[in-house]
Design a protein that fits this description.
This protein is of the alpha+beta class and 171 residues long. The chain is built from two helices and eleven strands, in the order βββαββαββββββ. The strands form four sheets. Strands 1-2-3-5-4 form a five-stranded antiparallel β-sheet. A hairpin with a 4-residue loop joins β7 and β8. The longest helix is centred in the N-terminal third of the chain and has 20 residues. The chain is globular. The C terminus is likely disordered.
């Protein structure tokens, strides 16, 4: 048990946390539950997570995975999201026909166009953060996203890793 959730298997693991298949014991639904790593919890804190969640709640688009709720349990921040059974683009690696590549590209571009029109940059776009939804691909993991209007300086990432999109930093 983790708060009101029964943790099932690990679905994925990244630099900010671990995503579990979980059951919400109050609604009796299966969800994806991301539990943030302690160092991330310490760095961002609950207030920033709450603000990011409020921002994500405004992003209502079929190409963006919605955040259901957030909270803290045992000193760890968590984020609940719908469970997408088909998995990520990274997990479903297989040869693709040209038509499928075009559809995938269109879905990703449409999702990015939607969030960019709202002043956001994803900053961690990669196959592990793109999921198969019922009808189209969906963008996930906006933990590194920034609002363009809040920043003053532009950099192109860290020396060891250049992100796929421009990285904005506030100095």
């Amino acid at each position: 048990m983790f708060g009101k959730f029964i943790l099932r298997e690990v679905l994925g693991e990244g630099s900010t946390g671990i995503v579990h298949r979980a059951t919400d014991t109050i609604s009796n639904t299966n969800i994806a539950l991301k539990i943030l790593r302690p160092e991330i919890t310490e760095r961002i804190g609950y207030e920033r997570l709450r603000l990011q969640t409020a921002l994500m709640a405004q992003l209502k688009d079929p190409r963006v995975i919605p955040v259901k709720e957030t909270g803290m349990c045992d000193g760890k921040l968590w984020i609940s999201m719908p469970l997408l059974e088909k998995g990520s683009l990274e997990a479903n690696v297989s040869p693709l026909q040209a038509e499928e590549v075009c559809r995938i590209t269109k879905d990703i571009a449409s999702g990015l166009e939607f969030i960019h029109a709202r002043g956001l940059l994803h900053l961690d776009l990669k196959p592990a953060n793109i999921f198969y939804g019922e009808k189209n691909l969906m963008l996930a993991d906006f933990a590194n996203s920034y609002r363009k209007c809040l920043t003053k300086h532009l950099s192109t990432g860290r020396q060891a890793h250049i992100r796929s999109e421009w990285s904005f930093k506030k100095f």
